[in-house]
């Protein structure tokens, strides 16, 4: 198949490029390089099944393709809050453009939605049937509400225009190729630990998170894309829960760092707990994450060690 990956030079998108090329497909990687990096995909340059297009998805594009993995959107709060109006445009206009393209060339399109559509959830763990508890006017809304509208558009193009759509709701994912300045907890802790700087915990560290290793997500995404008669939405995440304090301690341990732990005030709208219910993915896709946090962290630490050695960037975190 010829497959378009929007956001293909980003953290998750670049792992999807790897996987789909190794499965023998042709891959078109489309990116505006806002948060993505050419370093994530240079190893494919020269492969005749790989094409790279610099393009901003808020503008339409016409391509002959069979499937679209629609992943373009900044995912970390520092990045999506940098230009919140643009973030909403990317989610809303970008998704309209990808749905228009899918309709025109009869392609199957999958949206990378997010657990953020559940907001600060009142139900634990979150199933796909939960409608969420989202602040529509806060600083995270450009992302959360943008993705909620993107989901609405997916469903309306499906009902109204019979476009073949899929929705995945991705929970906290980590791994090699996260940006150094990503600003989310896993990369922050690892970079701080590798630099022997204090590890910053927002709040008392008792809030819990679940962490999914990127190759588990890629496997679930590919399974979802290629199954028939199931639109979703489906949660893809790792339900193993850890407190932020436990994560900090694990990172210190695995890096052998001399870092201490520093507690800072909790930012606005930070969820207390977030844990996926993945029984639907288990039932429909026969999928479950397999990478343990410790193993995934080791690989991610190796990556950041390599990056810091080769980088002139000294003070991101
Ligand atoms: N990483 C996670 O934990 C997570 C969780 C939930 C959902 N997601 C979703 O998965 C997708 C990928 O996330 P990621 O973690 O790889 O983030 P990322 O920031 O590394 O990747 C996003 C990519 O999209 C590109 N992009 C952004 N705006 C664009 C635009 N207007 N036009 C073209 N390209 C654009 C960026 O340059 C980047 O390469 C996003 O849609 C995100 O919302 C990620």
Which helices and strands, and how do they pair?
Blueprint: E1 2-6, H1 11-22, E2 26-31, E3 50-54, E4 67-70, H2 77-80, H3 84-105, E5 108-114, H4 141-161, E6 165-170, E7 173-174, H5 185-194, E8 199-202, E9 208-210, E10 212-213, H6 214-225, E11 234-236, E12 241-243, H7 244-255, E13 261-264, H8 279-285, H9 293-310
Parallel strand pairs: 1-2, 1-4, 2-3, 4-5, 5-6, 6-11, 7-10, 8-13
Antiparallel strand pairs: 9-12
Helix pairs in contact: 1-6, 3-4, 5-7, 5-9, 7-9
- The CATH architecture of the largest domain is 3-Layer(aba) Sandwich
Per CATH, what is the topology of the largest domain?
Rossmann fold
Shape: globular
Distinct small molecules bound, one entry per kind:
nicotinamide-adenine-dinucleotide
Provide the helix percentage: 25-40%
CATH class of the largest domain: Alpha Beta
Number of helices: 9
CATH homologous superfamily grouping of the largest domain: NAD(P)-binding Rossmann-like Domain
N- to C-terminal distance: 41 Å
Tell me the radius of gyration.
19 Å
Could you give a short account of the major beta sheet? Answer: 7 strands, parallel
**Average pLDDT score:** 94
Strand content: 15-25%
- Uncertain stretches of 5 or more adjacent residues: 313-317
Taken in chain order, the helices and strands follow as EHEEEHHEHEEHEEEHEEHEHH
Q: Describe the oligomeric state of these chains in a short phrase.
A: single chain
Number of strands: 13
Number of domains: 2
The secondary structure category is alpha/beta
Query: Which strands sit side by side, in order, in the main sheet?
Result: 3-2-1-4-5-6-11
